[in-house]
Design a protein that fits this description.
The protein contains 3 helices and 27 strands. The protein is mainly beta and about 375 residues long.
């Protein structure tokens, strides 16, 4: 059972060494209600996240590994911070102020190469500087990283700060800040794979999703947006009212065929610039719920289509097909090549600032 009336705190323990010998730490954040998040400064990864079910029983609800070595060896971005640019960039290139930049092509949906999630060594694979914080009765972890000019092909020295806050309302807030000395694209996000039944407890097809989005950005066979923004009404992409993830994931639909399920960006029905609710996920058996609040214009819902049981995670659990889902708040994919999409270009003198909150509850 979860414990109430605790003093929010952050503790730290060793979490192994990088291949070059640098020490990596694991920070444990605990809130006043007993919810707990274990976060490492390698990739800013949320390794474990314990949330209560309707009876108050805590379970770890994010997929991942028990050891640093497993994350270093191979991971589909379990729990990681993503940057400089999350999602896909067509052909691994973009043009900015008349100059073409070439990036790694580290992904190839439909056998069409593209750049994914920052490249071969994006922000998910770097060692961040970490500072534990307890402010205003909230446990937090501040991570900072200076991405040098030219890293993974991107221009400019980018100074990044990401702060995780484990709120006493059982929320995990993520604040992103960045500045640059040259124009550069920036689109940061977070990539936890959730299973509200518990990590390793089967598939997520019975989870029930609502998205505050009446439009989506359809993709080509290479999972790159066509540039269109289309209504979801009358399609398997309409989650404006609640639907189980598995209800229509196998429907005869080209978009679902291209991605092997859901792996698409929805255009949020925003009314302003502040935090607004983007998604609600409900797991009926445990009663756990997840609300996503964000300042971003889009959200990528991914139904774990590339999980295939070959990865063995925490506690020896294999992660089979569709055993985790991601809700990645973001600017739209391939925005650096899509002038009609909201811009992701950060320029000197500007400040990149955005926030997303994952709030957990029960029914």
């Amino acid at each position: 059972m979860s414990t109430a009336n605790l003093t929010p705190a952050v503790t730290v323990a060793p979490f192994g060494q990088m291949p070059d010998g640098r020490a990596v730490s694991l920070f444990t954040l605990v809130n006043a209600r007993g919810m707990r998040a274990d976060i490492t400064n390698y990739g800013g990864i949320v390794v474990r996240l314990f949330a209560p079910d309707r009876s108050g029983r805590l379970a770890d609800i994010v997929l991942g590994y028990d050891t640093l070595a497993a994350y270093v060896k191979a991971t589909p971005y379990f729990g990681a911070l993503i940057g400089r640019v999350g999602n896909r960039t067509a052909h691994g290139r973009f043009t900015l102020d008349g100059r073409e930049y070439k990036l790694a092509t580290n992904n190839a949906p439909g056998f069409i190469p593209c750049h994914l999630h920052g490249g071969n060594a994006g922000f998910d694979k770097v060692l961040w500087q970490a500072e534990p914080l307890t402010t205003d009765g909230t446990a937090a972890l501040r991570l900072t990283y200076r991405s040098p000019d030219g890293e993974e092909g991107y221009p400019g020295n980018l100074a990044v700060t990401v702060t995780y806050r484990l709120g006493n309302d059982n929320s995990l807030g993520i604040e992103y800040l960045a500045t640059t000395d040259k124009p550069t694209p920036v689109n940061l996000t977070h990539h936890s794979y959730f299973n509200l039944k518990g990590a390793g407890a089967g598939d997520i097809l019975g989870h029930v999703l609502t998205l505050k989005a009446s439009r989506t950005t359809p993709v080509t066979v290479g999972l790159i947006p066509t540039g269109e923004i289309v209504p979801v009404k009358g399609t398997p992409f309409d989650f404006t009212s609640p639907h189980a993830v598995g209800e229509r994931v196998g429907a005869a639909n080209d978009q679902l065929k291209y991605a092997g399920g859901y792996d698409h960006n929805w255009v949020l029905d925003r009314t302003g610039d502040g935090l607004e609710q983007a998604a609600i996920m409900v797991e009926p058996t445990s009663g756990r719920t997840l609300e996503v609040w964000t300042k971003e214009p889009g959200i990528q819902f991914y139904s774990g289509n590339f999980l295939d049981g070959t990865l063995t995670g925490k506690g020896g659990h294999a992660y089979p097909f569709r055993s985790g889902f991601c809700l990645e708040t973001q600017h739209f994919p391939d925005s650096a090549n899509q002038p009609a999409f909201p811009s992701i270009i950060l320029r000197p003198g500007q400040r990149y600032a955005t926030e997303t909150v994952y709030r957990f509850g029960t029914t």
